[in-house]
Design goal:
Number of strands: 5
Strand order of the largest sheet: 3-4-5
Radius of gyration: 29 Å
Protein name: Type IV pilus modification protein PilV
Strand content: 15-25%
Largest sheet: 3 strands, antiparallel
Organism: Variovorax paradoxus (strain S110)
Number of helices: 2
Keywords: Membrane, Transmembrane, Transmembrane helix
InterPro entries: N_methyl_site, Pilus_4_PilV
Pfam families: N_methyl
Structural class: alpha+beta
Length: about 200
């Protein structure tokens, strides 16, 4: 009587093991790519949320100072070497405002420009502190009300570009095309920009 137990176990061949390793490697590389993309999307979303907060702050400052609206423009050319976070506000608070009421029908706020300069300095400090290497480029537009229309205020528009250099992104995430040409950015690939148009 034959007492041998038949060998029904069968191991994997070297080829099968190698194929399994290749399939696993392809899957892991795919997951790594998805993770990298998710991180970039998350970073840009965070920058976008920060940008919206900064723009809302600046718009409210400009809305509260109609007399100094034109002075909210900031058209200084971009300089990467000067982009460092500020720790203190470099501008002293403006003196007490005076309103010239010598012409009662046309009172003039004599310190609108000083308030705008102060607001702008504070805001640019916030931008530098909240966006790595951050700065801004701002233009203003003032469109008077159409003639013959009583009670309609002038239209005031802020064009705001936020510029920062923290995220080096590939073409799928790049925002360089939104940077203002007038900012004279020497190396557009090294920065990212967000553009906002705010009507007050």
């Amino acid at each position: 009587m034959d007492m041998r137990i038949p060998n029904t176990q069968r191991g994997g061949t070297l080829i099968e093991v190698l194929v399994a390793i290749v399939i696993l490697a392809v899957a892991l590389f795919g997951m790594a790519g998805l993770t990298s993309s998710a991180i970039k999307y998350n970073q840009f979303s965070r920058m976008r949320a920060t940008g919206l907060s900064l723009v809302a702050d600046y718009a409210e400052r400009a809305r509260a100072n109609i007399a100094g609206f034109a002075d909210y423009a900031y058209t200084t050319a971009y300089n990467a070497s000067s982009r460092t976070a500020a720790t203190t506000d470099p501008t002293a608070a403006p003196v007490s405002c005076q309103v010239d009421t010598s012409t009662p029908t046309n009172p003039i706020n004599t310190c609108g420009s000083a308030i705008a300069d102060y607001d702008q300095s504070q805001w640019l400090t916030n931008v530098a502190n909240r966006l790595p290497g951050g700065t801004a480029y701002v233009t203003t537009e003032l469109t008077p009300a159409p003639p013959g229309v009583n009670g309609l205020p002038a239209t005031r528009v802020l064009n705001i570009w936020l510029i920062w250099s923290a995220i080096q992104e590939d073409n799928g995430f790049a925002q360089q095309q939104l940077c203002p040409a007038a900012a004279n950015i020497s190396d557009p690939a090294s920065v990212n920009c967000m553009y906002f148009r705010v009507t007050l």
